[in-house]
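[job 0412] stage=fold_complex status=start
inputs:
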Amino acid sequence: MDKLLNDFSPGLFVVSTILLLALIALMVKFAWKPILTSLNEREEGIQGALDAAEKAKREMENLQADNQKLLQEARLERETMLKEARELKSKMIADAEAEAKSQANKMISQAQEAITSEKKAAMAELKSHVAGLSLDIAEKVVRNELSNKDKQLKLVEDMLGEATLN
Amino acid sequence: MMKIFQQSFKSLALVLLVFLPVSIFALNEGGDGGQVDTKKEVEDYILHHIQDSHDFSLFSYTSEEGERKHFGFPLPVILWSSDGLRTFMSSEFHHNDDGHVIVEKDGVKFAKIHSKIYELDADASAVNFDAEHHATNGHKVLDFSITKSVFGVLVIGLLMLFWFSSLARQYKKKQIPTGFGRVLEPLVLYVRDEIARPNIGEKHYRKFTGYLLTVFFFIWFLNLAGLTPLGFNVTGQLAVTACLAIFTLVIYTVSGNKDYWMHILWMPGVPVLIRPVLAIIELAGALIIKPFSLLVRLFANISAGHIVVMSLIAIMFTLKESLGVVGATGLSFVLSFFILLIEVLVAFLQAYIFTMLSALFIGMAVAEHDHEHEHDDHGHEVPDAQDVRGDFI
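[job 0412] stage=fold_complex status=done
writing structure:
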């Protein structure tokens, strides 16, 4: 302890105090203040850039989500449109079928009517033809009766036989 | 890359300029001990080196004519004697360190004994020693000389100013420094982010970062300079470490807030009778023990490092007879190489510890005690981490 105190130099203490005070003042003014200010500015700049990037990223994500949503909507719309079109198509086909069927039925019934009326006309003609024939037969019969009774009968039978063919 | 080379050339030129007077000074004839061989001489040599010195000597040898030649340069001696200021160059002592060379300046006689300058009584013409080798007819003078330590402080201070102000200038032009600034910037960031910010707290650290940075680089560079063959031992001088410790003491005493003084003078949460006793202990801790631990830790570590390195180098001489020249030299080289590596680590570590503790003490003084201490079942305070850390130091 004695030796330590002996080694302690008050002069050196004073000189180093003055020099250190000067050094601290000079370093703070010319070195630390500008360095620390620039470092802070730089760090804030980096932080700002990172924040901006993060924000941009988030906006991008939002945009993408919007796009996705729009796409989804468009897809849904397309599907409904396609479905409607399909429905419309089948409806049109069904309608056409029904109309065709009714048309066909109508044509068939008209044809049937025509056939019936033709048939009636044919029948009437046949009837009148038969009546004419009957009259001819009757006329011939009447003439043959005058010549031969057997012949008259035979004629009638023949005539009847012919007539039944029709 | 080119820029670094240019800068190293500049630094080299600076160093050469400083050592230019070496050869002139070398012509001066000295009269000190000469060769160092025995254990006693080694011990004296080491103790001499640990002390401050009035001239800057690099090495010395004995010429063929038996003269002692010194390589180095003299430094100015500035003394405050009983008759006022006296200045002269240290070369006037002719390297004498045992009081045999008397320098007379304007009627005041000075002698240098063990690196201390004594003023002789007016009627004395030579130094008289008592049995314990203390001068009886002289007294120490106030010595403001540019000693080797002051020279070291000046050199390192100028280097720091040059390096860091050029780093500061770089930031005006660009965001990221180049060259040597790229080495310095992480160190600055390290002190700010690992020492100042966590120990002082986010709110107050800015005010003290300048001081902490200066102290950190000052101690570290001087510690490293002490490991070079230039032989500085600035941070191993009690006066310098005391000066640093007192700076820290002043800073945390001046900036201590109400809570800090409250905890020292009238500790809350303890019985009233104990409070005055605690106040004495706390005051002693804050004003004496903390700065004393700072100054002694740095002084002792650096001095011990120098003593160990020099002792291991001295193995070359002291074990020459038992191990032979090659064995002793080899052993000395291996041991001193490894201890030097450790000393490089210690140089950083001590700078870190001094700065860290300064930051911690400042942090304790400016801390805002918004935290309420928890109390256990018996009403005693449960120490939290901050208190434990405080006690630990």
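[job 0412] summary: The radius of gyration of chain B is 25 Å.
[job 0412] exit 0
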